[in-house]
Amino acid sequence: MFFSVVIPTYNRKPILEKCLLALEQQKLSTDHRYEVILVDDGSTDGTVAWLQEQTTRLSHLRLFCQDHQGPAAARNLGVERAAGDTIVFIDSDLVVTEHFLQSHADALIQGQRTLGNHRLFTYGRVINTCNFADPQLNLTS
User: Fold this and answer.
1) Are the C-beta atoms of 61 and 20 separated by less than 8 Å?
2) What are phi and psi of 3, to 5 degrees?
3) What is the pLDDT of residues 64-85, one digit of tens each?
4) Pairing relation of β-strands 61-65 and 86-89?
5) Distance of CA 121 to the CA centre of its chain
6) What value does the mean pLDDT take over residues 51-73?
7) CATH number, domain at 84?
8) Which of 6, 47, 82, 107 could form an S-S bond across to 122 if both were Cys, CB 3.0 to 4.6 Å?
């Protein structure tokens, strides 16, 4: 499975860094690979310049830019440019766990076995937090 993680962004540089670095930490089995398709939707906060300086840290990143048209248009451009056979959408203010993509792969494979169909949709848990340094710090079971 080859994942294309499509992310629209607009003026989110501080949290975008955490989002992209978390995606670089994915623990994914060797059967799978991934790319991160980031579509900058006309940011004016220095996002593109910063991203162009991060090529060694963000080895999975492919950057595309458009004039400000909104997140739907950015997602559409991301899908058009994606090379993967499986699309995963996230927003630029999400910080994922290191097992994010493997969990999607496991769910999709299980769904294919159970349902006998490859047209599937997955959705996982989200942790809402105001502490992006340690998002799970104040969670209770």
Assistant:
1) yes
2) -85, 135
3) 999 999 999 999 999 999 999 9
4) unpaired
5) 16
6) 96
7) 3.90.550.10
8) 107
